[in-house]
Each structure stands twice: as structure tokens, then as C-alpha cells.
Specification:
Layout: E1 7-10, E2 14-21, H1 26-37, E3 44-55, H2 57-72, E4 76-80, H3 84-92
Helix pairs in contact: 1-2
Length: 97
């Protein structure tokens, strides 16, 4: 099994995740996401998961923390682009893709 190198980038008010968002990668992804979030302006944040290949509950928890951080900055976060399997994991964690 090949795992993708996880990344997060920012395109205006959109965090774009790629690769595996799992326990193995969330520490760096969380730090990168928080650093990027500081530069986002506006009242909306889009979290794009279309490039995510795998996610586990640790990854879902990290996304929940990012959404909460955005809310603390006055932004509404929305998640989109998740495939069925990733959507199911997010729903199990009570996130709405």
C-alpha cells in the first residue's frame, strides 16, 4: 500500500488538503493549517478535501479543531469535496462534509 505525502495549502479563503490526513500526519498538518489560517481574511473558510486519499478519526478531530479555530476568528467553515468513505468518517465524527 502506498501512502500519499500529506499537504495543506491555501487558495484565498480555502484550505486545500491532499494525501492522507491521519494520526501519522496530523501534527504537521495542524501546525501548517493554523499558520495558514492566520493569514486568511473574510468571514468564510472553505476546507477542500477533494485531494484527500485517506482520513481517520484523528484527522477528523484535527479538521474539527481547524473549524473551531476559524470560528474563533469570526469565520464560518464549510467542508466539501470529500468522497463517500471520507464523508462517512467525518459524519461518524459529527462533521458535515
Amino acid at each position: 500500500m502506498t501512502f500519499s505525502e500529506p499537504t495543506v495549502t491555501c487558495d484565498e479563503a480555502r484550505l486545500v488538503y491532499r494525501g492522507d490526513v491521519t494520526l501519522v500526519s496530523i501534527s504537521r498538518l495542524y501546525e501548517d493549517s493554523r499558520a495558514i489560517l492566520k493569514g486568511v481574511e473574510g468571514d468564510r473558510l472553505e476546507i477542500d478535501l477533494s485531494g484527500v486519499t485517506r482520513i481517520d478519526t484523528a484527522g477528523a478531530a484535527m479538521l474539527d479543531e481547524i473549524a473551531a479555530a476559524a470560528a474563533g476568528m469570526g469565520m464560518t467553515a464549510s467542508i466539501y469535496g470529500a468522497d463517500q468513505e471520507i464523508s462517512r468518517t467525518l459524519q461518524d465524527f459529527s462533521l458535515k462534509p
